[in-house]
Design goal:
It is a single chain. This protein is of the alpha+beta class. The chain has four helices and six strands. The longest helix has 18 residues. The N and C termini lie far apart (46 Å).
Length: 164
């Protein structure tokens, strides 16, 4: 059940992303971050619209998802089936970073997503690494995805204001 949930949550790793500033430093959106933000957005729009042809156009033939702690990767067809059935109420992508690797690129980011609504709503934070290839002139294809759950940060401790 946990592995299936993480695989479904990995779908939402495919969402529009922009660089967001962390406290104390200013992040600049690079050309690669812009390109891969758009690609991730195209994929999530296709999945939400249940347009498997559009989603498949962004995935390499040998695409798979590896979830930390799972015995085996999830193959392309199974991931697509699960992704098309997933329901996401909200999400946020933070710390998107992209590194060029010859004819490919590696994108990593933190995804916080909420599934369900009301009393059944659940929020999870995941660390995702996507491996993209640009074979020939066929455009970018997502070849592999690696997903690991992140510990939910503890509630921020209250700092004394001197007014207590």
């Amino acid at each position: 059940m946990t592995i299936a949930l993480l695989v479904l949550l990995s779908l939402l790793l495919q969402v529009p992303a922009t660089a967001q500033p962390s406290q104390g430093r200013i992040m600049t959106t690079t050309r690669l971050v812009t390109v891969f933000s758009d690609l991730e957005s195209q994929l999530v729009r296709a999945v939400r619209a249940k347009d498997s042809a559009a989603a498949e156009a962004l995935l390499a033939d040998d695409f798979d998802v590896t979830v930390a702690g799972a015995a085996d990767p999830v193959a392309r067809a199974e991931w697509l089936r699960q992704a098309m059935d997933a329901g996401v109420a909200g999400f946020a992508i933070r710390n998107l970073a992209v590194r060029a690797t010859g004819d490919g690129a590696v994108a990593s980011f933190q995804l916080t997503q909420t599934t369900g609504a009301g009393a059944t709503a659940k929020t999870h934070t995941l660390f995702v690494v996507d491996v993209w290839d640009q074979p020939g002139t066929g455009g970018w294809k997502l070849r592999a995805r690696y997903v690991a759950p992140m510990a939910t940060p503890a509630a921020a401790e209250r700092r004394p204001t001197g007014k207590q």
